[in-house]
Specification:
Strand order of the largest sheet: 1-2-3-4-5
Structural class: alpha+beta
Distance between the termini: 46 Å
Helix content: 40-55%
Radius of gyration: 22 Å
Number of strands: 8
Oligomer: single chain
């Protein structure tokens, strides 16, 4: 159990090549064990604060006192927004997974958050072009433009958390199809 927890809370190998022919890549949000522990502890603190706020709210209602003033409502709203932002980051940190498969006939991309998958199968002949981009944090990803079945040109982001060597491998495989 300890090895499973350590492997889950620190995935130093966040991206890997599953096979070369057809090319199959998979990646997850890179995690560090120390940051994971701090995030879990912060989540516990937020749950304790939520319990305390709920207790004080029920106590105020039971004593027929004023439930909220304007300033306490602003603090409560800030607490709720901080929780939403934190839970969004936590779900990305622990739940994101991407799988890419490039065969001779199609390009398959699967983005998943905690097992909920969004799968796209793009035929190779419908891919218009691709370009490599760098985001603000310095990570490279691929923007793939393709002609969709509804007659529109669409774009998909691929490889946000792939390593540089895997991005160049994906780019080389796409160039072989003269895209």
């Amino acid at each position: 159990l300890l090895q499973v927890c350590l492997r889950y809370f620190s995935n130093t190998e966040s991206s890997r090549v599953d096979s070369e022919r057809p090319l199959r890549l998979s990646s997850e949000f890179p995690r560090n064990f120390c940051i994971s522990v701090v995030l879990v502890l912060f989540l516990l603190v937020l749950f304790c604060l939520a319990g305390e706020i709920t207790y004080l709210l029920f106590q105020s209602i039971m004593q027929s006192g004023p439930t909220f003033s304007f300033s306490s409502f602003l603090y409560f709203l800030a607490y709720v927004l901080a929780n939403i932002l934190f839970l969004t980051h936590l779900s990305l940190y622990f739940g994101y997974r991407e799988e890419i498969s490039l065969g001779s006939e199609s390009f398959d991309v699967s983005h998943a958050f905690f097992g909920v998958r969004r799968y796209r199968c793009i035929p190779i002949e419908k891919i218009l072009y691709f370009q490599m981009k760098q985001n603000l944090l310095g990570n490279y990803h691929v923007e793939l433009f393709y002609f969709a079945d509804d007659g529109k040109t669409k774009k998909i982001y691929i490889g946000t958390y792939l390593g540089d060597e895997h991005i160049s491998l994906l780019s080389a495989h796409l160039r072989r199809f003269e895209i």
